[in-house]
Amino acid sequence: MKFNIIVLFLVGTIVYGQRSDFTTSSFDKADSIALQNKGASLQNLPVLVHDLTSDLSTEAEKFRSIYTWVCTNIANDYGSYQKTVKKRKKLSENLDALTEWNDDYTPKVFEKLIKQRKTACTGYAFLVREMAKMADIKCSIVNGYGRTPTLVLNNNSIPNHSWNLVELDGKWYLCDPTWSAGHIVFKDDGPQFEPDYFDSYFLADPNLFIRNHYPLEIKSSLLEKPPTLEEFIEGPVVYKEAFFVGVFPTLPSKMHLEILKNEPVSFTFTSTESLTNTNFSLLQTNGTRSTVIAPEIIRNQNEYLLRHTFEKSGKYDVHIKMNEVIIATYVIKVSRN
Question: Is 199 left (phi over 0), alpha (psi -120 to 50) or beta?
Fold first, then answer.
């Protein structure tokens, strides 16, 4: 607990960073070393960390090698995740007790991880932190709320996710090794982990990261003006594909909207980079029926506005698409009057 307090103090006094800080750097060597050590034993972590980092010169490269190795060698344990959710729910009204349990439970998760090479989000975050510390890199665990299309939150929701803060070259960065590693697929014989490395959660832009990660300690968001938890919960669903192009919605700020028929509605989003050769559309679904809409598009530098007028009443899921990939979803109720 004392370590977390120190980290949060530092976060408040040090400028945050993002992946774009390393656009001139190559992580090819770090990724290659991680691949060369694929399947390496976890029984002697100091040796593994040495093998992953000794031939690399910068903190960023060393952390990259560790992060890539963890995300491509550890399986997501859905059973452990369910146990964690159950305990967090029981202690949801007592943050101190939840923190104490989490600190006590994490080493047990880690012990299972060492033996079976699988874990839930707490184990991923713990392993990244411990390996980073062995490489003399400051790293901490962040507990909070993760939001996906299938993880629907409300005001009574309990913390359900963990990720990492890491300090590189005097700046603090966000990353999520659990969501980088792959995803759970529900099949007839039960939930199964499918490895599928996703690079965009490595040193993510805090302005985009906050769209589906909300920390219990708000300073860990690395934002000067973070949203409230209520604003986070009420916001639109933002898919991981948005991270590919650094796009995040700004307006409407709420996922659920109520408008009148023939009243135009505008969707505004910002891109961290200029978008070229990009096709924008809206996918409107109502039950089993889907309609692709070509909205009016207004661009102002890296800000984009998509405008559409709904001519029929009803309740619709409206998905913002970029080049056939859904990046965000709203729910719109259109009334006659």
Answer: alpha
What's the pLDDT tens digit per position in 116-133?
Answer: 777 767 788 989 999 999
Question: Do 249 and 230 have their domain in common?
Answer: no
Q: How do 314-322 and 303-309 pair as beta strands?
A: unpaired
**Distance (Å, rounded) from C-alpha 84 to C-alpha 161?**
9
Last residue of a domain, one of 206, 234, 262: 234
Say whether the peptide bond before residue 295 is cis (omega within 30 degrees of 0).
no
* pLDDT more than 70, % of the chain: 87
Print the domain residue range for 59.
2-234
Total number of domains constituting the chain = 2
Tell me how far apart the alpha carbons of residues 208 and 223 are, in angstroms, rounded to a whole number. 11
Looking at the fold, whether 159 and 283 belong to one and the same domain comes out as: no
Q: Is 191 left (phi over 0), alpha (psi -120 to 50) or beta?
A: beta
Under the banding of pLDDT at 50, 70 and 90, the label for residue 80 is low
pLDDT at 265 exceeding the cut of 80: yes
Confidence (pLDDT) at 4: 41
